[in-house]
Design brief:
Layout (H helix, E strand, L loop, with lengths): L8 H10 L3 H27 L5 E3 L14 E5 L18 H7 L2 E2 L2 E2 L2 E4 L10 E9 L32 E5 L25 E9 L3 H6 L1
Antiparallel strand pairs: 1-2, 2-8, 3-4, 5-6, 5-8, 6-7
């Protein structure tokens, strides 16, 4: 049934809100869904301080603690800083977390979302912060020898001495640090705090496939 021809704004609004005519009902349901999505997004932004507040996992580099297709809620790194966070970064690296007992996603330290080499045009990486290095630091002796690939010393190790201060990072499933990845070159240099989008705080299985498909 169409709205009355002499309907005023109030009557028209009432008709739009209650009619079951298919085209109007479909549009109404789409608008309601969009409003719910926007409302949830705004609420999450208020809580996390990050936009967008959720990211989809695009690879298996964090298995088994995160899987491709997971949706991950991200929080500003300065919020809810755990014991052992480095300086004013708000990030607890693996080694400090092991000392304090601070754990995220079934292992020590924070999992961070960062832009590789600070490049906003590249897909952000979701990996665990392992330890902090200073500019020009020879960090080979501090590294876990299982994660440095074929390097036997700093001269053979990518990003050593450190070109700048930042976090050494690694996917939980990967065999080497991001900074020494050998196939196509390092994923990133040491991760500066300004490159960090936020900290991963909550994993929602499967929902990330929707975002990846879009």
């Amino acid at each position: 049934m169409s709205p009355p021809t002499d309907a005023g704004p109030k009557e028209l609004f009432q008709w739009l809100r209650t009619t079951e005519e298919e085209p109007v009902a479909i549009v109404r349901d789409v608008v309601k869904t969009a409003m719910w999505v926007v409302g949830i997004g705004v609420l999450l932004f208020a809580i996390t301080g990050v936009w967008p507040p959720m990211v989809a996992v695009e690879s298996g580099s964090m298995q088994p603690h995160m899987k491709k297709g997971d949706l991950v809620v991200v929080m500003d790194e300065g919020r809810l800083a755990g014991d052992g966070s480095y300086g004013d970064t708000g990030v607890v690296p693996y080694r400090a977390g092991r000392g304090s007992g601070y754990r995220e996603f079934h292992s020590y330290g924070d999992v961070i979302v960062y832009r590789p080499n600070g490049d906003s045009g590249r897909t952000p990486i979701i990996h665990r912060a392992r330890f902090w290095v200073r500019e020009n630091e020879n960090w080979y002796d501090r590294a876990n020898e299982a994660y440095v690939g074929t390097a036997d010393n700093c001269e053979e190790l990518r990003n050593c001495p450190a070109p700048h201060a930042g976090f050494i990072t690694k996917g939980d499933h990967n065999g080497v640090y991001d900074q020494v990845y050998e196939l196509d070159g390092p994923i990133s240099g040491p991760v500066k705090s300004s490159w960090i989008v936020g900290k991963a705080k909550l994993r929602i299985p499967w929902l990330g496939w929707i975002r990846l498909a879009i």
